[in-house]
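**User:** Hello, beginner here. Are you able to go through the protein record under this note? It all follows right here:
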Amino acid sequence: MTKHEKKTENKTEKNPLEEKVNQLNDQLLRTMADMENLRRRMAEERIELIKSANKKLILEILPIADNFTRAFANFTKEHEHAEWLAGFRKIQENLENILKQNGVEKIESLGKKFDPNLHEALTAESGKQDEILEVYEDGYQLNGEVIRHAKVKIGNGS
């Protein structure tokens, strides 16, 4: 056997081994990429789970904020300087601060133009077309996402 024949024979022997190494290397790289994608997806799902848990809790708390608003709307001038009323206003302020710290924002509606992405029109009466005339229940956004539409009365343009 000549030197050239030995080199050719060695190349053919290494070739199947090199192919196997390349296959295993490709498989390893794909598996590593799959694992990285799995880690990323799990982290995203964990964040979404936390967000949805916060959303559920916040939706349960919002009626309390609504009750404070309704209660304060019904107080008369004689209650204006009552100490207990100041205490209730402080509780409402604390609740609003907690909501803000957790990414909750009230949707400002009164006097604004009706937007079906933010508002739910319950009634209409004469007034400027699509202007919000009254807010029955405040709407809220959580981190920019509407979690509760504002329930409003709008003008019908007549």
The helical segments are 3-73, 83-101.
